[in-house]
Amino acid sequence: MVRSKKIFYGWWIAFSGALLHFFASGTSHYGFTVFFNPIRATFGWNAAVTSVAVSLRGVETGGLDPVVGFLTDKVGPRKLMLFGWSIMGLGFLLMSRMNSLGTFYATFILITTGISFGSSVVTHTTITHWFRRKRSRAMSIVFIGTGAGGILAPLLAFLISHYGWRETLFTIGIASWIIGLPLSLLFRRNPEQYGYLPDGEISTQRSNPIDVPPIDTSANRLEPGLDLASAGYTAREALRTRVFWLMAAAFFFQHISVAAVNLHIVPYLENVKIPTTIAAASVTGLTLCSLIGRIGFGFMGDFIDKRYLIAIAVTFQTAGLFIFSLISLDKAWLIIPFLLIYSPGYGGPIPLRPVILADYFGRKSFGSVLGWLALTTTLGGVASPVIAGWILDTMGSYRLAWQLFTLTTIPAIPLILLAKPPRAK
Question: What are 274-278's contacts with CB under 8 Å, separation 24+?
């Protein structure tokens, strides 16, 4: 089958998505663990109260994801992403000037709203439309950016120690606009509008290609009347299937520990007397090691049953989490096996989650279906950060929290194995 020799425009979208995810995850997701203790020290808040912000983020993200998915299906990604990155930058600027707990929560929600519209469901839906056979590999590229975001944690720690957390947040806000707004302009709804098929095949039904590189349409034409973008389940139909709720339950349990670890990894290591520099470097190690899972499992997803890959990854995540609970000052070496086992395990399902959803339910209402799955997944991590903080406040240690979350991760393994493909439409 003949293809254009030019680089398929979908890859530019994937690379842009990787850069956007890199910045968003590095500043607001992984990076916030570095801000946790400095903000607590400034205002005298306890760990549980400070952790509520992340729980509010989970509630807000979960509630918005179905709406964002629906809007992505209806209006396309570009307008939503421009709005999202504008709001995200504003949120960081306002947080840098906060002086109360209520303002902290409000600005955190504003930042999260920006991320919801500027990445996540929007970028995943766009990638799903532009790729089919290479979908898992393309999604892995996007999530490489998410995983690599942890590289920013030591940089943020350095900036906070030398300039203060307020000045660092202000800088992030300006950088959000400089980086996010131009890259958002590269996103397009689906390839059929520009004469492509998914993966770079070419059709005769081209619109004006003013927004994309010129392509050769001399071969591999799409027959008139064939619309791959309209194939698949509607959101209502998908939500009526048993397999959707099996996957939702699996990712719900899998995400419980992830949300708590991402927020509390630096405070936990500091609590067991690990130096802050090593704790911040562990965030980078966590995200870089997660790339093993994101890339490895993501690329294998185009060739191996994704259910088995996800089950294997969650098994690694569970084992690594138990190791995490055993770390202490005299057992600091356990950080290394924790990073090498837990990180690929939790990173592996990330690119596979939207891809298996697209395989099962098609492109017709993918944004809406992904939004509903993201809602249930996110709710899994709503309470866990607060629970971890409360256990620290009452017991002076995180150990019980990590052992509890090890147990809550286990149900995800049989649930995803039961999630067999639905009847084809």
Answer: 274/327, 274/329, 274/332, 274/335, 276/157, 277/154, 277/157, 278/332, 278/335
